[in-house]
C-alpha cells in the first residue's frame, strides 16, 4: 500500500512548478553592483594591460581590490543570499548537484546553488590574489612600497610571475563561469542572468524571501574596504 502511494505521488519539482509563484528579491543592490562592476573592471584591466595603459591598469586593479575586500566583508555581514555561510555547501553536495546539471527542472533556488557557491569562492580568491599581487608589483617597479627593499629578488620575481600567470587562470575561470550560465539556460531552462540584473526571481509562493542587510551597512563596509586598499597601496 505504501509502495502504491509513493509511485503515484508527484515529484517535488512538479509540485513546486504547479504551485502559485511570486516575484522575490533574491539579490540585493550591493551584491549586484559588485558583480557587474567586477565584470567591467576585469575587462578594463585586461584591455589596459594589452595596450600598456599602465596607469589605467593600476587604477582598475586598486578599485577591483577594494570591491573584492567589500565582497568578503559582505559575505560575512551582508544580506542572507550574499553570506558565505548561507551558500557554501560541502564538496559532496556540489558534486551531487553537478551530477544532475543537465536535468531540465524548475528553478526554485533562492541564491547560489551548491556548485555555484564554490565558483564564487574560486573567482573571489583569484581576484584577491591577482589584485593584491598587482599592488606589490606596481610598488616594486616604482620603488614606492616600503616592503619592496626588504624582500629578496627571488620573492619579488615569484610575485611578478604569480601576477602574470594569474590572468590566465582567472580567464579560464571566467570562461567556465560563462559556460555554466549557458548550460543552465539551455539544458535546465534556468535564467541566471536576469535575477542578477533585476534582483528579482519568480519562486513558489511558499518560499520565504531572504533577509536583506541595510544599504548603510554596505556603505560602511565599502568605506572600510577602500581604506584598507589605500593603506595596502601605500605600505605594501
From TrEMBL:
Annotated transmembrane regions? 33-53, 115-135, 147-165, 171-193, 214-235
Which keywords accompany this UniProt record?
Cell membrane, Membrane, Transmembrane, Transmembrane helix
Membrane topology term reads: Multi-pass membrane protein
Q: Where is the Cytochrome b561 bacterial/Ni-hydrogenase domain?
A: 26-199
From the Swiss-Prot or TrEMBL record, give the protein name.
Answer: Cytochrome b
Q: Name one GO molecular function term.
A: heme binding
Transmembrane helix is among the record's keywords: yes
Query: What's any GO biological process attached to this entry?
Result: respiratory electron transport chain
Where does it reside? Cell membrane
- InterPro entries from the UniProt entry: Cyt_b561_bac/Ni-Hgenase, Di-haem_cyt_TM, Hydrogenase_cytochrome
User: Is the Membrane keyword given for this protein?
Assistant: yes
- According to its record, what are the GO cellular component terms? plasma membrane
Q: Which Pfam families match?
A: Ni_hydr_CYTB (PF01292)
SUPFAM superfamilies found in the cross-reference section: Transmembrane di-heme cytochromes (SSF81342)
Amino acid at each position: 500500500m505504501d509502495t502504491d502511494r509513493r509511485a503515484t505521488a508527484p515529484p517535488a519539482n512538479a509540485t513546486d512548478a504547479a504551485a502559485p509563484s511570486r516575484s522575490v528579491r533574491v539579490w540585493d543592490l550591493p551584491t549586484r553592483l559588485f558583480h557587474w562592476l567586477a565584470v567591467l573592471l576585469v575587462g578594463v584591466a585586461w584591455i589596459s594591460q594589452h595596450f600598456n595603459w599602465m596607469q589605467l591598469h593600476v587604477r582598475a586593479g586598486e578599485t577591483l581590490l577594494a570591491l573584492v575586500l567589500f565582497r568578503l566583508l559582505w559575505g560575512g555581514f551582508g544580506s542572507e543570499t550574499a553570506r558565505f555561510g548561507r551558500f557554501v555547501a560541502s564538496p559532496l553536495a556540489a558534486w551531487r548537484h553537478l551530477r544532475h546539471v543537465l536535468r531540465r527542472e524548475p528553478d526554485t533556488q533562492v541564491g547560489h546553488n551548491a556548485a555555484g557557491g564554490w565558483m564564487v569562492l574560486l573567482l573571489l580568491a583569484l581576484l584577491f590574489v591577482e589584485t593584491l599581487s598587482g599592488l606589490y608589483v606596481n610598488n616594486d617597479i616604482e620603488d614606492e612600497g616600503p616592503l619592496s627593499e626588504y624582500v629578496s629578488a627571488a620573492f619579488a620575481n615569484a610575485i611578478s610571475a604569480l601576477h602574470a600567470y594569474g590572468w590566465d587562470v582567472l580567464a579560464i575561470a571566467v570562461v567556465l563561469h560563462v559556460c555554466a550560465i549557458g548550460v543552465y539556460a539551455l539544458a535546465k531552462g534556468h535564467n541566471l542572468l536576469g535575477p542578477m540584473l533585476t534582483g528579482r526571481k519568480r519562486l513558489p509562493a511558499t518560499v520565504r524571501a531572504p533577509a536583506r542587510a541595510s544599504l548603510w551597512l554596505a556603505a560602511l563596509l565599502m568605506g572600510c574596504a577602500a581604506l584598507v586598499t589605500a593603506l595596502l597601496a601605500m605600505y605594501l
